[in-house]
């Protein structure tokens, strides 16, 4: 199940051989650990032209745990993080400022480091501003493909109201927690009221309850672990057939097991009874792969029902009943297959595209209650689901992304924890890929 090639290229003979043969050499990704929760070194703060947010960023960026340097500072020789504030870019000429700021430093960014481009809300009244800001998207995605050595790049578009509500997202994107997220564009919304200012950034979910479906193993078990690390009491749900594994996960995270099939007629009712909930993670999912010509109606409808139908039904019941109240966070699981399409997965891709449609459609209405709803779209993540993929396709899936390696369940879990964060009220209706910038659907 593990990525043996990645392990091999990390050894001395592996490095020698892959170099000689011209094979890909994926870099080890720095990930979160209790000993190393943030990057070490300095964050380089660049500005393209002028920006209305320079002072606010001077206050906010040090809150990521990194010391902040401005260009020319000798100490920022190999910065693990670079923030380019391009919010002031409003014309094609202004885009030259993007080149001018990053060109001199791009080679010096530390291996495994981050580039975060900050953009502005696209103006509906100024086509050139909208074009120039949209240009940042193509720029960032291309840069993410060029960086190599485990470095990533994302574009964060601020809300019309500016930086308020951006802190949890800056902390996530500028930390080892976002190791397998690259080439993403995240749009912030005005966060609807003041942020909870009493957030404990070490245990942001303390005193909160989260329900995670499909929590017995794989990504769901990692999500339960990460949300528990962040302080949540986790209700771990999975089908009764895997009750033993489920119980093990629940005990390990100090949570509660709820053996339940999400497609059962009483599923919504029993999930409501497990409330009140602050966080709902729809992670349970199945595949029944077959090309359409050979696919049975049963294979079609079972996948659509588990991956999408149950997500819609249970979300609606939990919201309507009030079990998911003010400030709640909903995270559903899409997939890059739902974005790019995948031969043999018409049913699965339909269900996962449906999840993306659902979160976008629900977000505006739920914002009135301070509830956010987002999706994670994993790429190739090591789990039992991907272990079942035929060897050659599995190997291609692992390598066909900008980071040249597969992701871990923890990578999806960290992204989910960011979206579940009480400070992430400005993030809603987003579909965030956790795929190392997979070439599929890029
Ligand atoms: P997995 O098969 O290892 O785990 C899925 C879990 O969901 C299992 O414990 C299973 O028992 C549970 N489950 C299935 N049907 C259920 C039902 N009806 N009710 C309750 N629980 C049910 O899969 P994984 O790789 O950990 O994937 C988790 C999620 O991530 C899924 O939604 C999957 O589609 C999605 N995803 C995974 C990958 C990947 O590369 N592994 C990629 C994209 C998306």
Automatic annotation (TrEMBL):
Transmembrane segments: none annotated. InterPro entries: KR_dom, NAD(P)-bd_dom_sf, Sc_DH/Rdtase_CS, SDR_fam. Its EC number is 1.1.1.100. It is an enzyme of class 1 (oxidoreductase). One of its GO terms (molecular function) is 3-oxoacyl-[acyl-carrier-protein] reductase (NADPH) activity. The keyword Oxidoreductase applies. The keyword Oxidoreductase applies. Gene3D superfamilies: NAD(P)-binding Rossmann-like Domain (3.40.50.720). Belongs to the short-chain dehydrogenases/reductases (SDR) family. NCBIfam families: PRK08261.1. This is 3-oxoacyl-ACP reductase. It comes from Streptomyces cremeus. The lineage of its organism: Bacteria, Bacillati, Actinomycetota, Actinomycetes, Kitasatosporales.
């Amino acid at each position: 199940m593990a990525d043996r090639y990645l392990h091999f290229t990390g050894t001395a003979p592996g490095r020698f051989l892959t170099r000689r043969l011209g094979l890909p050499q994926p870099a080890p990704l720095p990930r979160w650990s209790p000993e190393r929760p943030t990057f070490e070194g300095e964050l380089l703060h660049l500005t393209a032209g002028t920006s209305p947010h320079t002072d606010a960023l001077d206050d906010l960026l040090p809150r990521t745990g990194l010391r902040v340097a401005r260009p020319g500072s000798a100490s920022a020789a190999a910065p693990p993080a670079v923030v380019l504030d391009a919010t002031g870019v409003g014309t094609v000429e202004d885009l030259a400022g993007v080149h001018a700021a990053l060109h001199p430093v791009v080679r010096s960014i530390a291996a495994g480091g981050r580039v975060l481009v900050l953009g502005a809300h696209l103006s509906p009244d100024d086509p050139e501003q909208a074009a120039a800001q949209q240009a940042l998207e193509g720029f960032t995605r291309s840069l993410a493909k060029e960086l190599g050595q485990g470095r990533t790049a994302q574009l964060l578009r601020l809300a019309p109201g500016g930086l308020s509500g951006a802190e949890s997202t800056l902390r996530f994107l500028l930390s080892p927690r976002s190791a397998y997220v690259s080439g993403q564009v995240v749009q912030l919304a005005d966060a609807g009221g003041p942020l909870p200012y009493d957030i404990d950034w070490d245990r942001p979910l303390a005193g909160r309850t989260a329900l995670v479906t499909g929590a017995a193993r794989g990504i769901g078990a990692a999500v339960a672990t990460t949300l528990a690390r962040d302080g949540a009491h986790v209700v771990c749900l999975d089908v009764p057939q895997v009750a033993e594994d489920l119980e093990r996960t629940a005990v390990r995270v100090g949570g509660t097991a709820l053996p339940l099939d999400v497609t059962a007629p009483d599923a919504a009712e029993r999930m409501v009874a497990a409330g009140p909930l602050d966080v709902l993670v729809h992670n349970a999912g199945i595949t029944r792969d077959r090309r359409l010509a050979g696919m049975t109606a049963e294979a079609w409808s079972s996948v659509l029902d588990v991956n999408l139908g149950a997500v819609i039904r249970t979300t609606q019941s939990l919201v309507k009943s009030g079990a998911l109240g003010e400030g709640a966070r909903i995270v559903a699981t899409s997939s890059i297959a739902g974005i790019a399409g995948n031969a043999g997965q018409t049913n699965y891709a339909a269900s996962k595209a449906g999840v993306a449609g659902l979160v976008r459609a629900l977000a505006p209405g739920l914002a009135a209650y301070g509830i956010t709803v987002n999706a994670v779209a994993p790429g190739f993540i090591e789990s039992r689901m991907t272990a079942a993929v035929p060897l050659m396709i599995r190997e291609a899936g692992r390598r066909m992304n900008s980071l040249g390696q597969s992701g871990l369940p923890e990578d999806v879990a960290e992204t989910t924890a960011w979206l579940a964060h009480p400070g992430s009220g400005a993030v809603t209706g987003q579909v965030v890929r956790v795929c190392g910038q997979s070439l599929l659907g890029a």
